[in-house]
Amino acid sequence: MDGGAGGGGTLSEVYQSAKRLLLRTRDALERLERLECSTATAAAGGMDSPELSASIRRDVVQIQSLCIEMDRLWRFLGAKSQRDLWRRKVEQVAEEAESLKVSLDKYSSRNQQKMMEAKERAELLGRANGDSAHVLSIFDEEAQAMQSARNSSRMLEESYATGVAILSKYSEQRERLKKAQRRALDILNTVGLSNSVLKLIERRHHVDKWIKYAGMILTLIILYAFWRWTR
Predict the structure, then answer these.
(1) Which of 123, 134, 154, 196 has its CA 20 to 30 A from that of 46?
(2) d(CA 28, CA 58)
(3) Distance between CA atoms of 136 and 144, rounded to whole angstroms?
(4) What is the 3-state secondary structure (H, E, C) of 107-174?
(5) Helices (H) and strands (E) in the chain, counts
């Protein structure tokens, strides 16, 4: 099973890649659980292919990585209705991926328990012809493969957690930048309003000055006319 498309595409493309991975991973998990219940597998001691289990786990982590990418992309959508729609879609994919992970963890736990019980039975048999040593060797190989798969899963989950933390920091920085931008615009608007008020006051001052001069001149003319009339 390959990992599907990664980041770098549009939101719709990444979403379609995640949905395809979900479908394929769900089918693989169902096949794994059918193997667990089949009589042929039970006759072999309840073992399965560890590679299949590890591959499913890698795909689950890949889906979670795509969810991180989608969570980053939907935040850049312009319309709030679109952001809300895609946020719900991403949350649904993330919940389905988490459900698959929980189911796989339960299966791995059951399988590990079966391996331990089968190994204990083989040790108790203690066949003298050397078959017991061969069986124990098979169980040891299976146990090592399962441990390797768990180690790989833990590393992938740590990478996923790191990606979530980075995205969270990115979102916080983006919100701080938006708030700073709004404050800067408010300051610019305030400065622009103050300049307009100052210009209005200055114009009013000039008008008042000319009204004062005109009143003085008119008063002088009236006094001169009165003086001439009284002579």
Answers:
(1) 154
(2) 12
(3) 12
(4) HHHHHHHHHHHHHHHHHHHCCCCCHHHHHHHHHHHHHHHHHHHHHHHHHHHHHHHHHHHHHHHHHHHH
(5) 5, 0
Tokens 């979900």 locate to: 22
- The answer to whether 15 touches 94, Cβ cutoff 8 Å, is no
Give the DSSP H/E element, type plus range, for residue 19: helix 11-37
Residue 100 is inside which H or E element, if any? helix 80-125
Q: Both ends of the chain: CA-CA distance in Å?
A: 120
Backbone angles phi, psi at 3, to 5 degrees: -85, -10
Dihedral angle, C-alpha 10, 12, 16, 22, nearest 10 °: 100
Backbone angles phi, psi at 133, to 5 degrees: -65, -35
Token couple for 6: 């990664």
Looking at residue 67, its pLDDT comes to 94
Q: What is the pLDDT of residues 111-147, one digit of tens each?
A: 787 777 777 776 676 554 455 555 556 556 666 666 6
5: left (phi > 0), else alpha (psi -120 to 50), else beta?
Answer: beta
- Distance (Å, rounded) from C-alpha 122 to C-alpha 134? 10
User: Which among 162, 189, 199 is positioned nearest to 68, based on CA atoms?
Assistant: 162
DSSP string, 188-231: HHHHHHHHHHHHHHHHHHHHHHHHHHHHHHHHHHHHHHHHHHH-
Contacts of 96 (CB under 8 A, 6+ apart): 22
Over its C-alpha atoms, the chain yields an Rg (Å, rounded) of 39
| Position with higher pLDDT, 161 vs 46 | 161
